[in-house]
Amino acid sequence: MSYFRAKPLRVVFAILWVLFVGIIIALGFEPNPYALHVLDVPEPYSYPIELVVILVMAMLFHLSLLVTMDVYMDSRWKLFVMLITSVLFLLYFGMMAMHAPPSLGGMIFWTFLSSLLFLLLCFWQVCLFVLRRFFGRA
Q1: CA triplet 67, 72, 78: central angle to 5 degrees?
Q2: Between the CA of residue 9 and those of 47, 109, 124, what are the distances in Å?
Q3: Which regions of the chain are under pLDDT 70?
Q4: What is the DSSP string of 31-56?
Q5: Cis ω on the peptide bond leading into residue 44 (within 30° of 0)?
Q6: Which residues contact 90 (CB under 8 A, 6 or more apart)?
Q7: 18 three-class SS
Q8: For residue 136, how far is the Cα from the chain centroid?
Q9: What's the CA gap between 114 and 30, in Å, rounded?
Q10: Which of 1, 22, 60, 138 gives 20 to 30 Å between its CA and that of 54?
Q11: Cβ within 8 Å of residue 115, ≥6 positions away
């Protein structure tokens, strides 16, 4: 638990991650509009357990990469590397956005939010660097 006591932003990120895992699991119950209208799959169809498990495992992998980078990297480039990791996940899952079932849409939204968070944090770090370097402020 000392990992969370160090910085409150980690707690917010963890709460959002758990929230989106729940959203992805709940969105598995929503009907897939592409499968209903284009593929003519009759309703009701079964819960897409394989897709939901794959998405939750991908989220676990994404989280484990980010936590590993956060714990073991002491560089100022840490947030940039975390941003690149999140953007790569966004590009991979974002390519499937056109015909995405609702649970995959939740995963795409999560990767978008995490990429946006790290982009804002990188921008904040650059602003602090410029203030310290050129204006002598902290």
Answers
A1: 75
A2: 34, 19, 14
A3: 1-4, 35-37, 39-43, 137-138
A4: --HHHHHTS-PPSS----HHHHHHHH
A5: yes
A6: 108, 111, 112, 115
A7: helix
A8: 35
A9: 24
A10: 1
A11: 83, 86, 87, 89, 90
